[in-house]
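Why does residue order matter? Because the sequence determines the fold. Keep that principle in mind as you read this record.
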Amino acid sequence: QARSALGPALDKATGTLLYNAAARLKDPKHLGFLVDYIARGEILTDLQLGAALEYVRSHPLEPLDAADFERACGVGGCVTPEQIEEAVEAVISQHRAELLAERYRFNMGLLMGEARSRLRWADGKTIKNEVDLQVLHLLGPKTEADLEKKPKAAKARPAPAEKQKAAVVENGEVGTETRSLLEQLRGEALKFHKPGENYKTEGYVVTPNTMALLKQHLAITGGQVRTRFPPEPNGILHIGHAKAINFNFGYAKANGGICFLRYDDTNPEKEEEKYFTAIREMVEWLGYQPCAVTHASDYFDQLYTWALELIRRGQAYVCHQKVEEIKGHNPPPSPWRDRPVEESLLLFEDMRKGKFGEGEATLRMKLVMEDGKMDPVAYRVKFTPHHRTGDKWCIYPTYDYTHCLCDSIEHITHSLCTKEFQARRSSYFWLCNALDVYCPVQWEYGRLNLLYTVVSKRKIIRLVETGAVRDWDDPRLFTLTALRRRGFPPEAINNFCARVGVTVAQATMEPHLLEACAREVLNEQAPRAMAVLEPLRVTITNFPAPKALEVLVPNFPADESRGFHKVPFQATIYIEETDFREEMDKGYKRLAPGQPVGLRHAGYVIAVQNIIKDASGRVIELEVTCTKSDLAEKPKAFIHWVSEPLACEVRLYERLFLHKNPEDTSEVPGGFLSDLNPDSLRVVHNALVDSSVLSARPFDKFQFERLGYFSVDPDSKEGKMVFNRTVTLKEDPGKA
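Structure:
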C-alpha cells in the first residue's frame, strides 16, 4: 500500500518513519492503517509518529476513529512560519527582563520548551532557528563577557539521610547524581505502564479477551501497583538479590503499592527450611515487610488444572525425549508433538499417578522462545517429597510454566526480573494468553555483580566443603547473612543499590564502593569506643590520684548531644605497640623517647621515662610520666588507649580472592579455589577493649577510634567478646 501511494521513489525521511513504525508497533492489525498516513505524507515527524503509536496502543481492539486519531497526532495541523514567529515573540516578551539581565547565560531551552508547548506539532529545528534569531535581535552579538564561563554555584552539603545517589556506572565507578532510590522508582521515572494499561507496553500481546481481563484485574486491585520478590528457597541471598529486593519492594513502596514475598518452591530436591527462614529474615533486615508470604506450591492444584486445559486446547503434549536430547540450541523436534489431545491427557494423568519414572515423560508447551528454544518443559516427574505438600505430588511445574501463572493469580502489575529472563518474555505472554487469564507485564533490569567474589550457590558450597570459609555467613562472603555478620548496616546495602541505580545494563562493581556506603552510615550510627589490638603496657609513675579516675568520652565527638560513656583511667594503661618507637624516623609523630603524645579524651600528655624489655630485647612495658594537657606543650599527636579493659578476640578480614574475576579461567586458569587469598582472615586473640562495650549484643556496631568500624560477632560469650572488623576508617588506596 505504501509503495503504491508513494510511487517508486521513497524519500529517506518517509522510509525512516515507515521502518520505525514497523519496528515499534508489534500489533499487525493497525500497522496498515498507520502506514497509509505515513505514505500519504500526513504523518511527517517523529513527534507525530510517537503520538500515533501511543494512540494505536491505547485502542488495541476497537476500530480506529480516523478523526479522533488525526486530532491526537496532529494530522493536517500545519504550523505556519508566522505562527512560529508569533509564539516565540510572545515567549521572549514574557522573559524579556531576565534575558536582558542574564543575556546569553539565560537558559534558552526554557524558551524552546515554552514555544513548543504553544505549538505542539511545530518543527523543533524551525522553532530553534526562530528563537536564535529573535534573541540575537534583542541582545545583539555575544560579547567577551558573554563568552566567559558561568561560575558554579556552591552546592549545599546534603544531610546524611539524603546521600543515596543515583547511578551512572562506568568501569565499576559510580556517578554523583543525588537521587534516592524511591525517587528513581517513583511514578513515571522508569517509563513503566500504569496498572491496567498493560496493553500500552511494547510487545504486549492483545487478545479479544485482554480488555475484559484487565477490567476484572482493576476491579480486584483497585489500580494498585503490585510486585513480587520470588526467590528459590535453595540457598542464601547475596548482594545481587539486595538489588532485586530493593527494586521490587522499593517500586511498590514508591508508588503506593504492595509487594509479595513468593517462594518459588518448585524443586523439592534442593529446598530446606533454613533457606525459607533466612530469606524472610534478610528481606525484613533490609527494612521491607511483604504484604503476604506466598509459595508457588500454594497454587499447585490450580497449576495442574491449567495444565490439563492447556492440553485440551492443543497447546501442550506429553513427550518422551530424554533431557540430553532436548538440551542445546538445535535439539531435534519431538516426534510426539502432534499426538492426540486425549492421549496426552491420559499420559499426563499417568505422570501424576507415578506410572512413569523420572526422565521418562515430560509435559511440553508448543511455542518457540526468543532464544530459539523450542517447546519448553512445563512439568517433569520427581519422586521427592515436597517441603510443604509432602507426597501429594510426584510431578512438579517448571519456572517457565509456573512463574507467569503465579504472577497472574496474585494480580501482579509489574513482574520485575533480571535481564537473562528477557528470552522468556514471549513464553510469559504466550502462556497467559493461551489460557485466557490475566497477563501481567514482565520488565527486565540489569544484574548487580561484585568483583573479587563468587555468589553462585554451587561455588559457595564448594568453599564451605573445602574449609575455605566456615559457612554461608562467613564475613568474607557477600551473602546478605555474611554482610550482616561482618557488620554492614542494611541502610548501607540499600544505599549501595541506590547508587548503582535502576539500570538495564549489567553493573559489575568494586567492593570498595560498598565499603564506602558502610562508612557513611556507620559514621552516623556507630558509637565510639577505644580498643587496642597489639597491647603494650604503660605505667604512669606520677599518676595524679590514688585510685582510677573516670573519663567522659563522647559517643559521637562531632555531636556531643548524643551522649557520653565513662571509661576508667588509672596508673596502668595499654597502648598500641605501633604507637611507640625507640628511634624516631623523620615524620614520625607518636610516642618516642623525647617525644610526648597526648592521650585521647584523658586530658593528659605522657612522656617516656624508662623502657623495659624481655630477655629477647622486645619492649614489654614503658614507664612514663603524665602532665595535664593545659600545662604541657601541645603534642604532635594524640593516641588511643585502654585501662581496666576487657579481653576480646578481633577478626580482621581482607578480600577472599586475589583476582577481580576468580571465576574467569583466562584470569585464573586453576579455577576459583586456586585463587584464595591466604591472608583473607587474621585473628587477634588477645586484643583489649574499653569496658563501655560490656553490655553489647551480637551485631551491635562500634567505631574503635583510629582503627575502624567493628561489629559484635554471634560467637561472643561471657568473658570473651568477639569483634569483626567491618571496614577500616579510610579506604585503602591500594584497593580503589
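The longest helix spans residues 124-139.
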